[in-house]
Design goal:
Elements lengths: L1 H31 L5 E5 L6 H6 L14 H9 L4 E9 L3 E8 L2 E5 L4 E4 L4 E2 L7 E2 L5 H12 L3 H4 L2 E6 L8 E6 L4 E5 L9 H6 L6 E4 L5 E4 L3
Parallel strand pairs: 1-3, 4-7, 7-8, 10-11
Antiparallel strand pairs: 2-3, 4-5, 5-6, 8-9, 9-10, 11-12
Length: 223
């Protein structure tokens, strides 16, 4: 009688194990076949949602498990027009993507290229400031770095930029603003441009030259 009980117990345990194994495999198959159904994107101002999606392997809304958040993030950041991406999954079917775009800063007339925040160059021309002449290599990267710190509203007010060093300052720039004013600036005082609107509000309602390279002097242009 004891042997029969032991045999029955062993068979019962085997059946339970096989059932659990079958259930485990079934769950894995179900999970593996769940597809991405919703992709939600934020942070983009210029790039279209579809263009962002198309730069990844999830453009066909494939199986979720084989497309991890880290994989999608890497694919997005390989896009020259994206500086940084944050990817999160809610469950297995929803993907949330937040990006920081690689802004176009200026059109470099010398090279005929548009220059972006990370130094990327493109042939696409946008309504952005035009850099009219050559910048020495020693200040080129610093110039890009300082331009990238400017508010979008300030960049949109700049029409043309000229590298204009003199005997005193070898990294001086002259900016022609869309409102008709001229602004002198250098690498160390570039940050002042973010206060441009506040500065001109306290100036005479006339066109002139604003010297932000040293101080905040304003010289009215004689008519």
């Amino acid at each position: 009688m004891k042997k029969k009980k032991k045999i029955k117990l062993k068979k019962g345990r085997i059946l339970i194990f096989l059932f659990c194994a079958f259930l485990f495999v079934l769950i894995l198959v179900i999970l593996f076949n769940i597809k991405i159904k919703n992709i939600i994107i934020s942070g983009n101002n210029y790039l279209k949602d579809q263009d962002i999606i198309d730069s990844t392997s999830i453009k066909t809304y494939p199986k979720s498990l084989i497309n991890t958040s880290s994989k999608i993030k890497k694919e997005l950041e390989n896009n020259n027009l994206i500086l940084k991406a944050d990817v999160k999954k809610i469950g297995l079917s929803k993907v949330y993507i937040e990006i920081i775009e690689n802004r176009s800063l200026f059109y470099y007339l010398e090279s005929g290229k548009t220059v972006y925040e990370n130094g990327y160059l493109s042939d696409i021309k946008y309504p952005i400031p035009t850099l009219l002449n050559h910048i020495t290599d020693s200040y080129y990267s610093d110039f890009i770095k300082e331009m990238s710190k400017l508010d979008e509203s300030v960049i949109n007010r700049i029409s043309e930029i000229k590298f204009s060093p003199n005997e005193v300052d070898d990294n001086r720039f002259l900016l022609l603003m869309k409102d008709g004013n001229y602004v002198y600036i250098n690498i160390s005082t570039f940050y002042k441009l973010n206060k441009y609107l506040t500065i001109i509000e306290n100036l005479p309602n006339e066109k002139g030259i604003l010297y932000l390279d040293y101080g905040n002097n304003f010289e009215i242009i004689s008519q």
